[in-house]
Design goal:
This protein is of the alpha/beta class and 295 residues long. It has eight helices and eight strands; from the N terminus they run βαββαβαβααβααββα. The longest helix has 27 residues. GO terms for molecular function: oxidoreductase activity. This is SDR family NAD(P)-dependent oxidoreductase. Belongs to the short-chain dehydrogenases/reductases (SDR) family.
């Protein structure tokens, strides 16, 4: 089995990687920034900077060279960031959170599509923050221009992150439409839930690490009424991600969204915006233009 993965050096992805490396006859290629990454035996780190479309293309070329005539059985698009503001740009000039969470993964899956095995699986990590019915700051509209070219009127902070997670959900739906039927590829959009011990916002300050265990009981009580506010662990979220990727959890017929709620996998409908075919097709076409590929 061949697994290609982003976001596997810390947090949820690192926990999932532990399960993958226990599989026999499995090769795991991990896209990671920098060099000298310490990974479990059975996995190999290859250079990938998701803030650069040039780096994405180079990573895809390297993967294809390593594959030879073999195919990718599982593609896990897990990496994500939440930038402190929306002023930072990617190498190509796109807003950084949008470029990292959505655009680079869109390009990567388009480039690797010919190398996906029939009957393979694509997992995209999204978030229940994409749904304003679940999380109040979730996006109520999809404005692609305000995401790629941020202004003072564009989403910021958690609202920006939530908007990129909507993009992930819409991309998952597009991939199911594009590749699911003719290549029998399963596409899953995975919400790991609120997770306290991840590196989503960069290295956590010591005070935050101390606060999370203290506030966890309070959030547990809140989650009895608002389940999305349950603070889970990277270990459990990584386990769920691995189970979905390895096919140990079978998605219900017609479902694409797997959401971890209070530690249990559920299979709800995505947000109303995410169910819009108009939004789905528009994002696909506009993303293709941004990365220089045909729609």
């Amino acid at each position: 089995m061949i697994i290609v993965m982003t976001g596997a050096t810390a947090g949820i992805g690192a926990e999932a990687l532990k399960y993958f490396t226990k599989l026999s006859d499995t090769i795991i290629y991990v896209g990671a920034r920098g060099s000298g990454r310490a990974l479990p035996e059975g996995s190999e780190a290859l250079a990938l900077d998701l803030s650069s479309l040039k780096s994405v293309r180079s990573f895809a070329d390297t993967i294809k060279q390593r594959l030879g005539n073999t195919k990718i059985d599982v593609l896990v698009l897990n990496a994500g960031i939440q930038a402190a503001n929306n002023h930072v740009r990617s190498e190509e000039g796109f807003e950084l959170t949008f470029a990292t969470n959505h655009l680079s993964h869109y390009l990567l899956v388009r480039l690797l599509e010919p190398n996906l095995a029939d009957g393979g699986r694509i997992i995209i990590t999204t978030s229940d923050a994409h749904d304003p019915a679940v999380i109040p700051f979730g996006p109520k509209t999809l404005n692609i221009d305000k995401l790629r070219n941020s202004t003072e009127h564009s989403p910021k902070g958690m609202a920006l992150y939530a908007a990129t997670k909507l993009c992930n959900m819409l991309t998952a739906r597009s991939l199911e439409k594009e590749f699911g039927a003719h290549k029998n590829i399963d596409v899953i959009a995975f919400n790991p839930g609120l997770t306290g011990d991840t590196s989503l916002m960069g290295k956590q300050p010591a005070i935050l690490k101390l606060l999370i265990p203290a506030i966890r009981p309070l959030f547990y009580l809140i989650s009895m009424f608002k389940p999305a506010f349950f603070i889970g662990t990277a270990k459990r979220s990584g386990e769920a991600l691995a189970q979905l990727a390895m096919g140990k959890v079978v998605m219900p017929a017609g479902k694409i969204y797997a959401s971890l709620v209070r530690g249990k996998l559920t299979f709800p409908e995505p947000s109303k915006l995410a169910q819009s075919d108009l939004n789905m097709d528009l994002l696909w076409k506009e993303s293709a233009k941004m990365v220089g590929l045909p729609a």
